[in-house]
Amino acid sequence: MKLKCPLIFTIIIILFYLNINAQNKSTKQSYDIVIYCGTSAGVTAAIQAARMNNTVLIIEPSNRLGGQTTGGLGQVDIGNKHAIGGISKEFYQNIKNYYSKSENWNWEKKSDYHGSNHSHKTNNEDTMWTFEPSAALKVYLDMLKNDKITIQYKQRLNRKTGVKKANGAIISITMESGETYFGKMFIDASYEGDLMASTGVSYTVGREGNSTYGESLNGVQTGKTGKSLNGHKSIASKKHNFVNDVDPYKVKGDPNSGILPFIITETPGNIGDDDKKIQAYCFRMCLTNKPENRIEFSKPSNYNEQNFELLFRNFEAGFDKVPWINSKMPNKKTDTNNKGGFSTDFIGQNYDYPEATYKERKIIIENHRTYQQGLMWTLANHKRVPQKIREEVSNWGTCKDEFAREDGWPQQLYIREARRMISDLIITEKHCEGIEKVNDGIGLASYTMDSHHAQRYITQKGYVLNEGNIEAKVHKPFPISYRSIIPKNEECTNLLVPVCLSASHTAFGSIRMEPVFMILGQSAATAASIALKNKKTLQEIDYNELKEQLLKDNQKL
User: Fold this and answer.
1) Of the four listed, 282, 437, 458, 459, which is most buried by Cβ atoms within 10 Å?
2) Does residue 22 register a pLDDT over 80?
3) 3-state secondary structure of 509
């Protein structure tokens, strides 16, 4: 016993010191600026923060940086390209440089690629607006090479108790793993707004009614056309919809037989009414018709043919096109997006996503993947799909050399909209139309006020339609207010929210583009750096000083 007791005591002492060292290791993880989520906004925020001589941490919940920019969205929604400056434009210049090298053309000659629409013009342009996901990732990682930037992968915020605050400021955030990170300034660059919500900042989910902010394109949009406040026509629900007289019932013409999947049973609401519905999500697929690099579409193990009955009926009613937008990317690849009444958007199946637990979100994401995989297999193989459609779709498949999955599918679901902060200033349709202007701009948005459909319903005549689509041009590039990316002073003084910013559903539809998120990420980091330098809260900094630095760094205001 005399020999064993000292040994046990020694072991206890060793374990005690190992525990203390582990705790010390955790508490030493302190940075000037902590960025939650390495989306496009998170990446540019980190680059800017490091350039302004701050220590920076990016916490990325997945194993891949870049969000949707590296997740399949290679057909950039620009709006007015002259409104894009700073690190955002620098990224697209670096894309151009990447494709100027012959070794980066593996599956086709550079001279054979002509891009699509605005995306690839003449050699006189110094930017390129179409790219492969893998190319975007390589460019981002190269731009992030800086000793002051640390990246932690596969760490998710403890959303219940992970945020510690004192005197109105975040002190630290703790992950599900138990890892704790301390910071002086925090940036929530997530698509979901998880850090913002866990901090206790006010936010909303869904569509406001038109009456809330005096808008014309918010809320339910069952009309075939509409007009913005300045008279710009909105395509509204007329686009991406079913052809006439598509039956919604399991047995055609028999309401007692039950309703086909993914159609609501209640009325959609009146035009302009508010609701908690969210525009649809999908995966932006990167496809190829190059046989050596193609993975054929496969039938999911839990395939349900009835899920695609509306697709068959839409074809039978006269729809005769492939229901996708197949935009050309370099190396015989595409960015493939939703088009038509029944396409890749999984309409109405994302309402719970913003507030869902991580486990629940994973189920929603996999349901979207299964639906879309089933759709692609159906289009390529099912006999009720017109032969010319099957022949076209069968030429395509996912890419062997993209993403970290054997099936070639993206990891990143396209979260078009989730939470939106409610701050001292809310960007609305009036700002998009130039009716109201801000005097503290930190970047420009210029894309159409755009929303995908939010629900699929039965009309009074007994047919099926989609609802929620809006597409209305903005007056001209409009400034986004600094106040829209910071919370109210009483809610938090050291948090910036460049993605789930303070905007109405309508205005967010124009702002929610990846180049704009990059712009806002850079501006957020600039504001954080100025606040640190002057030892002020984010609400106290001098806008003129912020403006001067942004212009110096080539932001367009």
Assistant:
1) 282
2) no
3) helix
